Amino acid sequence: MNLMPLLLIIPLAWALISLLAPRLPIGLLAIVGMLIQLFASAMLWFSVHVNGPESYAIGDWMAPLGITLIADGLTATLLAMTALIAIICAFYALFYLRQYPREQRFFWPLFWFLLAALNGIWLAADLFNLYVGLELLTLAAVGMVALTADKQALAAGLRYLYAALLGSLAYLLGVALLYGAYGTLSLGQLSNMLEPNITTQVALGLMTLGLLMKSAVFPLHTWLPPAHGGALAPVSALLSALVVKASFYILARLWLQAGFDIMPVSAAQLLGLMGAGAIVWGGWQAMRQSDIKMLVAYSTVAQLGYLMLLFPLAIGVSAISATLAWQGTMFHLLSHGFAKAAMFLSVGTLVLAVGKKGLDDMAGISRQLPLSLFAFGLSAISIMGLPPSGGFNAKWLLLQSAISSGQWHWMIVLVLGGLLTAGYVFRVFRISFVDGPPTDIKPTPLPLELSALLLAVIAIGLGFVSSWPLASMSVTELLPGGSL
Amino acid sequence: MMSTDLWFAVVGALIIAMALFTFIRHTHLLRRILAFNIMGSGVFLIMVGLAQHDQQTDPVPQALVLTGIVVAVSATALALIIFRRFYKASGQTQLDEDTEQ
Amino acid sequence: MSFWLPLLVLATSLVAAIGIFMIPENRHAVRGTFNLTAALIKIALIIWILIGVIQQQTFETRFTLIGDIDFILRADALSLLFAGLSSILWLCTTVYAMGYLNKAPHRSRFFGFFSLCVASTMGIAMAGNLFTFLIFFEMLTLSTYPLVVHKGTPEALRAGRKYLIYTLSGGAVLLIGIAMLHGLIGSFEFAETGVLSDVAIEQHPLLVFIFAVLILGVAVKAAIVPLHGWLPSAMVAPAPVSALLHAVAVVKAGAFGVVRIVHNVYGIEFAQALGVLLPLAIIASVTIIWGSIQALRQSEIKKRLAFSTVSQVSYIILGITLFGPIGTIGGLVHLLHQGITKVTLFFCAGIFAETLGAHKIKELNGVGRRMPLTSVCFTLGALSMIGIPPLAGFISKWYLGWGAMEAGMSWVILVLLASSALNSAYFLPVIYRLWFLPAPATWPDEKIPFRRMETNPWLLWPTIVTATFTVGAGVLAASPLSPLSWSALIAVREYLP
């Protein structure tokens, strides 16, 4: 039996159940569904690890009209990460949403649509399915942001929706141009056919612009902080850990599999520059926020910047440097996913307990919620890139790549970015040492704290077992251009 | 004499440009939704034009446009719902950041 | 077993830390027992390894971390020097801290991070390559921050921030250095005579640059002037923290890093050939003199001790830079001697503050009669720092001076003399006040809950023990298990046969 369609069918089926039968205990059902999903993802990961990449044509329709799914090592790893983060977020939401009975009704269907879209994007092998996946993802994510239906949430949702739609159209236009020129949408076929002419460059440029918009890369990031900072805690965690990564993933595949010798090296350097801008600006803004969730949201802006360093580090350099950059970036994507989800969940617990979002309101909370602060601390280690943690290993690989290709400037960006990160996360650590006046703190269920802790422990643990995901990510023979 | 697909492309590009201008220029949320739809039509026009390649019609762009329209309709619906709720909650037709400018 | 032992040594403190975090705040007896048991087990394990190392056994834990880089914990003679010091002082400081923090809040947090801090130190001691070293070096930064800001006062938080800015920047620079070195020669491990001697000659300028970067990275923790600013500020921490930070964990981690870089990465002969030792010697000398002068200007006991640390830690670095086995012995033996001596002095300072409320030097008048045992310990520590025979400090200075002559750097003798004179100038007046000036009518904030003892016995006993070490290390220097003999064993192995 092929597992790939199952990974799409499960979330869609569960989405329908949650939508049509809201009287069922959909939260508990979701956990069951997620367990199946996690199991299927793990099986697929294992199978790809042993047998190499797999592909599957839905309904036996061949491209270009049919939909082909491809699972290589990277895809399988991303699927497993998605399932793992999502199940922990779902578990968290199960308890967290007790405070929000009305939102609960809509959270679960959206959650499952979001998951279906993510899995669809990881598995898609052609540009148009990626578009459909992106759109479904956007609609589900916007719905989740606007869930609380107060003025701020709605405004944030609208802002997010407009930015994302604009991005999608740019992307779609690029896809149209590519199809017009080459008559195919398959990423694998395109990677062998693309020629460096003006149409291709305009098409790739448009697609890049659209994807940058959707990934909230500086200076197109302004929609992200209100959306991620204002949403409910499990939503913020899913958005920051997974959703923004989807569009980046497409961008990375586009550039490194198809467009690596189409676009000028200076364009790659420009993307890196945007990343550096994100690191500095995001870090600086995070340091200035008084709202703890906004601090974490700006941290996401900054961390997305590291991902952008992939382009200058992997394009126009030796194969060894490019491989290191690719590994480092994907590992950063992985560890940031776990760490940022942990961060948002732990901060969500703090906000829920205190009832306020201000950083200064948290004084004296260390006695009531030590585990949440501990989870925040562990995830912060990974976010700062301090050893031992997944974040550190990613940074190390990127540093090695920068050194081996002689690009010292990116090395300095990497190291300074880490220090800047320390600047804002320690603002949160600080509060655990201040004995504030005893505020009335609501008791919170222990599972909330434990789920954040589990994610944080995984983020740290990635620092010790990095050889597994790295080995698995290197399984990519199926796609012709994918020599990386 | 212009070939058909180029003709489609030029008109499509023109529509996109006009819509984009509106999207950026106007802060009224409803206008932006409209602008987005028109922009979408421009993109679809280009795609349909490409389908006219070499005498016979290529079915793929047609299928894509069809899917694209479905997506655009759902996005518009979602935008309208959120806009209505936003209008009810705040009485505004613009986002706060845009009004200040 | 030889695979698991280094990991077990690390685990004793790590497990202790996790356990302590979980023990409820008010279960003091349980926590104390748990903590002391862990400390004793650690000492037992260290002794086990020590015996093995003497019999030429190797103890190594190794697994692949990322790409071609291994995580290596290895117990060699040099790691045991540092690990032994840490484990013994961990025991003493834990006992002391239990007395010191009696009735204070947040004890779980304090002891938890304290154990974590010792675990990091153990990791630094046993790291088998620079990568592993870096892991624990950064872990040390993170685990000491909560101890510096423990009191939660604005002053403590400010000091904590300063501490972080310094040490995290240091860590970042170290990371750059390690990454560059790795990019140049691939993965490498610490070796007794260095690993870089076969790098092509064109790369030598780059190697010199990397050396500077690496030293800059560890110099922050070693409090080398002008990167020492965090240390006096960090004095706001509770006394056991100052004792542990200054005598063992942080500054020693920095100094130990210098030892590892010079001896086990570059190799002392190669470093000499590159010509990087002399600049380092000059920087160390400047730090020695500058620290002593600053110490002289302080009126608070702990601040004076802090600047004294700045100065004394650079003795270690100075010893390393003196080319030749004798200088190396001087540097290594000072790593131990300074540790036990400075811990004694900080313990005494803590006792003065806790029992009498005396924080300033002028408040120490006549304390000798009120608290004779503590004052004797303080006097012994101070005399050892000055270098009066037969105390531990004398042995260090003797070997440093001898090493300087051997290395043909006789100007170092002048530095040592000047520093000793300054040491006397800032320690002798304190001793004079303790014993010869009349006591004031009332102390600033005297507590008299201890009937026959001069102070809380939990504070006094560890102090007496470390003071005894100070005497013992000097008097018994010739015995086979003394710090001196052990350092000599290491030094002989570091030079090419």
From TrEMBL, chain A:
Keywords: Cell membrane, Membrane, Transmembrane, Transmembrane helix
Coiled coil, from the record: none
Transmembrane segments: 6-21, 28-47, 67-94, 106-124, 130-149, 161-182, 202-224, 231-256, 262-284, 304-326, 338-359, 371-388, 408-429, 450-471
InterPro entries recorded: CPA3_Na-H_Antiporter_D (IPR050586), ND/Mrp_TM (IPR001750)
Major localisation: membrane
Gene Ontology CC: plasma membrane
UniProt-annotated location(s): Cell membrane; Membrane
Domain NADH:quinone oxidoreductase/Mrp antiporter transmembrane: 124-421
PANTHER family noted in UniProt: NA(+)_H(+) ANTIPORTER SUBUNIT D1 (PTHR42703:SF1), NADH DEHYDROGENASE (PTHR42703)
Protein name, as recorded: Hydrogenase 4 subunit B
Organism: Aliidiomarina minuta
Phylogenetic classification of the source organism: Bacteria, Pseudomonadati, Pseudomonadota, Gammaproteobacteria, Alteromonadales
Automatic annotation (TrEMBL), chain C:
Cellular component annotations (GO), alphabetically ordered: plasma membrane
Subcellular localization: Cell membrane; Membrane
Membrane-spanning intervals of the chain: 33-54, 75-98, 110-142, 163-185, 205-231, 243-262, 274-293, 313-337, 373-399, 411-437, 458-479
Its membrane topology: Multi-pass membrane protein
Domain NADH-Ubiquinone oxidoreductase (complex I) chain 5 N-terminal: 68-111
Record's keyword terms, sorted: Cell membrane, Membrane, Transmembrane, Transmembrane helix
Keyword Magnesium attributed: no
Domain NADH:quinone oxidoreductase/Mrp antiporter transmembrane: 127-420
Main location: membrane
Family: Belongs to the CPA3 antiporters (TC 2.A.63) subunit D family.
Protein name: Proton-conducting membrane transporter
Taxon lineage: Bacteria, Pseudomonadati, Pseudomonadota, Gammaproteobacteria, Alteromonadales
